[in-house]
Amino acid sequence: MFLAAAAAALPATGAYAADRDKKFFESVEGNWAGPGEIVAGKYKGTKFNCTFAGKTPGNKPGMVLDGSCRVGVFTQKMTASIEHKAGRYQGTFLDGAEGKGLDIISGNVVESGQKVVLAINRKQLNGIMQARLAGDNTMNVTISVRVEKQLVPVIGVSLKRLDTTAVGSID
């Protein structure tokens, strides 16, 4: 799959990888808000604002983001759930590919534990969702889709932490 190279950019194994992954996901806990924009496709130029609450799913590495995004007077519920199961990251964005969303089919925490790269899929649509921590209080999320042999960024969101302190820290 095309994500193999991106998701395995900095492979790690064993306890170090589990520890690094856990620290990343714990650092995403809390409340986040910020603007986003559709940067390609039919709705290019559409701007929106999102708010999310992030938490970790029990003792397993992963995260649950629950919230909404608003465009003008319209609000759309947004959720993402990622959990380490059966040796890989799996989950859903919105209600998954069986509904109107996307399936998260694999992923890795990379860049010394500051970014997660997740493979997303819906029928013939393949792509990646990246969440990168740019410090304790800023998270940038990019969704890119595969067009022929290239990944094309489609959506970008820049979130700021609303809590006063970061839950976890990145070394």
**Rg measurement, Å:** 15 Å
Main β-sheet, spatial strand arrangement: 1-2-3-4-5-6-7-8-9-10
Helix-strand sequence:
HHEEEEEEEEEE
**Sheet having the most strands:** 10 strands, antiparallel, barrel
Proportion of strand residues: over 45%
How many distinct helices? 2
> What is the general shape?
globular
Mean pLDDT: 85
Oligomer type: single chain
Structural class given helices, strands, pairing?
Answer: mainly beta
Please give the number of β-strands. 10
* CA distance, first residue to last residue: 31 Å
Provide a short characterization of the protein structure.
The chain starts with a helix and ends in a 10-residue tail after the last strand. Helices cover 11% and strands 55% of the residues. It has helices at residues 3-7, 14-27; strands spanning 30-38, 47-55, 62-71, 74-85, 88-93, 102-110, 115-122, 125-133, 138-147, 150-161.
